[in-house]
């Protein structure tokens, strides 16, 4: 897709009205629609929210993110930024304000979460990207973004199983993952 086509898709996406109950993201010029999340997914997001100190951090669910120089407007399950860095209004949150994004893998989002969004968040210089994977029962924390566009990636990775305490040094906490649920009967994948 050419840069002109991607900019055109971005303008189209701004006015696009999805069907009720459908979540929509723009990922590298493609509109991706998803059904509402599973209960396991929502309970994990709630558990993470409860562990991040509200006085210090803004914890925003399903917030549209603006990635500079990308035809992408991802909508992470959770965005964390310093409370004093939060804009007063606006649909798009600039990626440079973000400290951590969290995606909880669904049965259909594995490739998007592990490959596409990983590259997009790295291109947006988001310092830390946490994937919580109830398919495989583990968390993967990516840090130290490098590169531009499709070639962007994270240079550091920490993978821990559910039940382990995940150090989120950027937030000054250790994330207790012992209460995270898993999807029963879902075929395992090969990521990360």
From TrEMBL:
Keywords: Endonuclease, Hydrolase, Nuclease
Pfam family, one: Uma2
Location of the Putative restriction endonuclease domain: 13-171
Keyword Transcription: no
GO terms of molecular function: endonuclease activity
PANTHER family (alphabetical): SLL1072 PROTEIN, SLR1083 PROTEIN
Name this protein carries in UniProt: Endonuclease, Uma2 family (Restriction endonuclease fold)
């Amino acid at each position: 897709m050419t840069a002109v086509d991607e900019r055109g898709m971005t303008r189209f996406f701004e006015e696009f009205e999805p069907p009720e109950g459908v979540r929509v993201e723009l990922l590298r010029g493609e509109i991706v629609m998803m059904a509402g999340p599973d209960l396991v997914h929502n309970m994990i997001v709630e558990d993470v929210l409860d562990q991040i100190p509200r006085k210090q951090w803004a914890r925003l669910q399903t917030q549209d993110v603006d990635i500079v120089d990308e035809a992408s407007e991802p909508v992470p399950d959770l965005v964390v930024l310093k409370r004093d860095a939060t804009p007063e209004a606006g649909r798009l949150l600039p990626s440079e304000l973000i400290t951590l994004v969290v995606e909880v893998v669904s049965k259909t989002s594995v490739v998007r979460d592990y490959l596409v969004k990983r590259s997009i968040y790295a291109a947006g210089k988001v310092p830390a990207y946490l994937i919580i994977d109830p398919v495989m029962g583990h968390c993967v924390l990516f840090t130290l973004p490098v590169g531009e566009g499709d070639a962007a990636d994270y240079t550091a990775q920490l993978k821990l199983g559910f039940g382990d305490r995940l150090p989120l040094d950027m937030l000054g906490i250790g994330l207790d993952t012992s209460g995270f649920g898993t999807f029963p009967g879902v075929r395992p994948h090969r990521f990360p």
